[in-house]
User: What shape does this take?
Amino acid sequence: MILTDDQRQLADMTRTFMGEEGTIKKQLRHWRDIGCKDGFGHGLWKQMAELGLTGLAIPEEEGGLGLGTTEAALVMEEVGRNLTPSPFLTTSIVAVEALKGSEQGKRWFPGILSGDTIAAFAIDEGPHHRPRQIALEAKRSGNGFALSGSKQFVVHGASADLLIVAARTGGSAGESKGLTLFAVPRDAAGMTVENVALADASKAARITFEGTQIDADAVIGEVDGGWEPLRRAMRAGRTGAAAELVGVAAGASAMTVDYLKQRKQFGKLIGEFQVLQHRAAHLFGEIEIARAATFKAAELLDRGDERAGVMTHVAKAKAGRVSALAVQEAVQMHGGIGMTDEHDIGLYMKREKVLDALFGDANYHARMVQAA
Amino acid sequence: MSDLAQFRADTRAWLEVNCPAEMRTPMRSEDDACWGGRHFKFQSEAQERWMRVMGEKGWTVPDWPAAYGGGGLSAAETKVLKEEMRAIGARSPLSSFGISMLGPALLKYGTEEQKSRFLPEIARGEIRWCQGYSEPGAGSDLAGLQTKCEDMGDHWLVNGQKVWTSYADQADWIFCLVRTSTETKHGGISFLLFDMESEGVSTKPILLISGYSPFCETFFDDVKVPKDQVVGEVNKGWDVAKYLLGHEREMISGMGLGSGSSRTLAQSLGEIDDPVLAADVALFDVDALAFAAMSEHFIDQLKAGEAHPAMPSMMKYAGTELNKKRHELIMAAGGSDALEWDSERSRGGKAAREWLRTKANSIEGGTSEVQLGIVAKHILRLPGA
Ligand SMILES: Cc1cc2nc3c(=O)[nH]c(=O)nc-3n(C[C@H](O)[C@H](O)[C@H](O)COP(=O)(O)OP(=O)(O)OC[C@H]3O[C@@H](n4cnc5c(N)ncnc54)[C@H](O)[C@@H]3O)c2cc1C
Assistant: This one.
């Protein structure tokens, strides 16, 4: 795929912006070291709103840029390269995709556009991503629903103004029918939110719903018809996460190639050792392949092509595998210094692990490819 | 009853009486290891008692000569002791760089006086040692080290800096490589022992990506060391260093694998509902069990004096790569639960922190690349390697 001029401009703009404002020193380390409860900075989020990025995927008639998955992936790759913590993936990609075309969209888009609203997505109920197994129950109650059950790995869940919750209104665990998506505001009664720090210093919540009362109009789309928006949102999220993984891999390998050109042992630059050269070259190829798969998935999604589903699984699995290889090679090739907290390279390894698990790990998506 | 059968019966009876119940439970983490030394805070009375009774019997180092605080056991008896300990799930009474690294080097290269002075202390866990090898410019290229050691007539004077000195801030003594001559790279290195409380020694901890901080930068500023604390000949410390590294590699290659638990990874993970992961774990178990067989064979070879001197490199490479893989699989099986960093549920992020720590296995004690280089050069005799 060849980028259009507009896409190239967007990529250049975000590369410059993230490279200046979204750096590890200014964002990730800063928020981590002061023990920030959100794990990201609202200042940067506002700046992203000013650039139009928060509303990148919001339709033009609703005030957004009306762009697609490809553009979102371009942004995500820069986010990955700089390990920039922000709610862009959960809010501007996943939540927006779920809300698109619904009444709830009209309610929440303005806040997302202005950078005031943070959204989180609540899918997983166990340690592994198993969306069809969703059991959290939504029972009709009063003029709405009562939610009971629990969710975990809800990224930014404790910072979110809006939670998009996938629940079961019918069918049984294992089925995609009978699921419903709800837009749950943060102040809903009967909800306990535990903010958990993850290995990469990001935050994800464990949320317990105990008869949480939700209005009927909080339903996104149709009752029992949640699989459609959920699947759309997950595809967008997986492609976004894959692009971020590609950025993580590329960032880690760039840092490593630099190091190979600087570090001397045995009177030589370590980059002169052929063992390391070949591995660096191999990695370069793998990252290019993962990037191609990711952008192919984005392109197919944007075109509404039926092959998009499989390609999304391919992209997430491949990007996860390649990114894991990249960060492991990176730490190894840095030697002892790579094991220190002071050096940035280890941060890539931690981020990779979290991103791989998000919206299904490489194993999960490999299975989906096989089943397709 | 044969002597060995008698020995087994006696050992079993002795362990039954002397191994505290608490020391027969699996270690929960690295923190449960007993390191001994002047500053060590025992986690429990049982931990302390276990180290002491085993130390007094010489069974912290069963195959060292009794004259130096060891158990004086034969290879066969040592094996029986290990088996009997394993049978009751006894923890190792003492983890120590003194035992696994310095001791063997002293036994081979130390003077009579050095052996009788240092070895019994090591056996009883009285002195904790750290290793001062690496320097900022000398990692894989260890012989590139610069720490200066001058002969001042009645003492040595040491100046320089070490890095990655594991537990330097908790150690009592250091075994250290220093430069006593600049004429040749390998031929100007000496192996020196000294007290970390000597004037002019300071340490600064380095935080690891796992959030733990077991190692330090260590600085020597006009440190005076008595003349009789060089091990082996002056300027010939490289031989001692290499010999010791062989033992270090042996130790690291066994870490987390083969030793202790006989449960396979699949058993310890329980039901796995992901066929891709299940296949990976099954293949891992094949590798791990095969490696355990190799470990046993390798130890037998070592004891029989038949191991190629470069074999520890092969073992270190294979063992550490396997251990890293093991923790990758544990993380995959744990899913998002395993990603938690300091929640109570995750026991303070145990899985994630251990996973990150294992990434050092293929770096510490010589990187995997360096081990493969040694195998290529010294075993395969490949040209130019
Ligand atoms: C957790 C931990 C504990 C440690 N504990 C101690 C300790 O107690 N005492 C102590 O003295 N040291 C200790 N070390 C240091 C360790 O021995 C060194 O980190 C190691 O030897 C590598 O050196 P380096 O870090 O300088 O990496 P470098 O030598 O700079 O290596 C960087 C990269 O280049 C590669 N490379 C270098 N040379 C070659 C070559 N010839 N061919 C191919 N590739 C090559 C390496 O494999 C690595 O991938 C510890 C290290 C760690 C991580």
In short: The longest helix of chain B spans residues 275-303. Chain B touches chain A through 46 residues (CB under 8 Å).
